[in-house]
UniProtKB/TrEMBL annotation:
Names of the cofactor(s): FAD
Ligase among keywords: no
Molecular-function GO terms, alphabetical: monooxygenase activity
Keyword Methyltransferase: no
Protein keywords: FAD, Flavoprotein, Monooxygenase, Oxidoreductase
InterPro entries assigned: FAD-bd (IPR002938), FAD-dep_Monooxygenase_BioMet (IPR050493), FAD/NAD-bd_sf (IPR036188)
Protein name as catalogued: FAD-dependent monooxygenase
All copies of domain FAD-binding, residue ranges: 5-341
Entry superkingdom: Bacteria
Length: 396
């Protein structure tokens, strides 16, 4: 089978973007997803989308305005006693990087992307892969017992990737923290919470993030606290969360936090996992992308952004005249960007959750000094969308 015959496992953001990026290069991909309703597993929360990802999605023909994206003006960081610790002027992203910083309901952006990609790739929901053998002549076994022999296999199947298992035996690592999230109608909340601001409150052992999505109709809430798992070595991955214990834990936090928690009936909890950076993201005819390649804790809001960047870069590498050299370059670039963020996400939570003391004072001074966007240039000024050429919308 030809190497141009690309089989993608997973139709999350990474899988859909690589299929769209591959179509840009004149190729055709088949995308399998275990879920009968593609995107359902990622529904229920919001995403912060950085300027490079906005540029990629636009070139793939995704209309973010129609998907209810909110253009963010600022990120405000406050202590759990309400003190303002920092304000990042995200409204300047458009001018500085060419595209804005936006927030969106993840189900909305996923549906918009799926609608675009389904017209240029073969997306097959309800098709679970149970195992992958061999990376030089990969054999993919499906849940119904069929086997496939793709020319090129891309693992975009998330943090619990079956494809990754063919490259090595590593496991997801539990952080000891849970992220509890909910979408809350803004209509019943204090009016200023509808402003296009990403709000972050940090305190000892916990932090809270809130920002508007869905065209400003809903507030995405994420509360990160230590887990109370019966078995901390093997926690459940997700669970429904009663807000009452969170209300008690954060009872002396600012009014805004308490108002949002009071308005929530139920949250969805996710045990936060990542994995150690992998030395090789490719082997033979198999390549990994997105969370399958470099899953990271969500504390820098970069997992999906890196998934999208990596998908565009991997499509370019697969199309290169010297594919092996291009795949090596893909691995190096991902290691330096996503690998760095994997470790940075882990470290950042210790900083966010610091108790009172000299370390926290030093952190607060450092945050107060970060007034512009210059320190974010490496992250937000990454010109990955140029690998896509013209917009798919106009070439389709
Ligand atoms: C609370 C929280 C908040 C976050 N906030 C942000 C944020 O603001 N910004 C950001 O950039 N990132 C954020 N992230 C991270 C982001 O959600 C992930 O990094 C991103 O969704 C990864 O995309 P993916 O396509 O690689 O994987 P996934 O979204 O996990 O998609 C994997 C797909 O593969 C399918 N699949 C899995 N196994 C199989 C199989 N065996 N066979 C077939 N199909 C399979 C699944 O059904 C799924 O559709 C957050 C994460 C959490 C938990």
């Amino acid at each position: 089978m030809s190497q141009d015959d690309v089989l993608v496992v997973g139709a999350g953001l990474a899988g859909l973007v690589i299929a769209g990026a591959w179509a840009h290069r004149g190729g055709h991909a088949t995308v399998l997803d275990a879920s009968a309703s593609v995107g359902a597993s990622s529904a229920g929360g919001g995403l912060q989308i950085a300027p490079p990802t906005v540029a990629v999605l636009r070139r793939l023909g995704v209309d973010l305005d129609a998907a209810g994206a909110v253009v963010v003006h600022a990120q405000e960081t406050r202590a759990s006693d309400g003190r303002l610790l920092g304000r990042a002027p995200l409204h300047a992203c458009e001018q500085r990087y060419g595209t804005p910083y936006v927030t969106v309901r993840r189900a909305d952006v996923h549906a918009a992307l799926l609608a675009r990609v389904a017209s240029v790739a073969d997306v097959r929901p309800g098709t679970a892969v149970t195992s992958v053998h061999e990376t030089h002549e990969p054999v993919v076994t499906l849940a119904d017992g069929r086997t496939l022999h793709p020319g090129t296999l891309v693992g975009a199947d998330g943090i619990r990737s079956v494809v990754r298992a063919a490259l090595g035996p590593d496991r997801p690592l539990y952080s000891g923290l849970w992220a509890h999230r909910a979408l809350v109608p803004l209509a019943g909340l204090p009016a200023h919470l509808a402003a296009p601001v990403v709000r972050l409150w940090v305190g000892p052992g916990a932090h809270v993030v809130a920002y508007p999505v869905a065209g400003g109709r809903e507030l995405n809430l994420v509360v990160v606290v230590p887990g109370e798992d019966d078995d901390p070595t093997a926690p459940a991955w997700t669970a429904a969360t009663d807000p009452e214990p969170l209300r008690r834990r954060l009872a002396d936090w600012p009014d805004d936090v308490r108002a949002v928690l009071d308005a929530v009936e139920m949250l969805r909890g996710h045990a936060v996992h990542d994995r150690a950076p992998l030395e090789h993201l490719t082997s033979g005819r198999v390549a990994l992308v997105g969370d399958a390649a470099h899953p990271m804790a969500p504390f820098l809001a970069q997992g999906a952004n890196q998934a999208v960047e990596g998908a565009v870069e991997l499509a370019a590498a697969l199309a290169a005249a010297d594919r092996p050299a291009a795949l090596t370059a893909y691995e190096r670039r991902r290691a330096s960007r996503a690998g760095h963020l994997q470790q940075g996400s882990r470290r950042s939570v210790a900083l966010l959750h610091l108790p009172a003391g000299p370390e926290r004072d030093a952190r607060d001074r450092a945050w107060a000094a970060e007034t512009g966007l210059a320190h974010r240039d490496r992250l937000y000024g990454y010109p990955v969308a140029t690998l896509l050429g013209n917009a798919l919308a106009s070439s389709a």
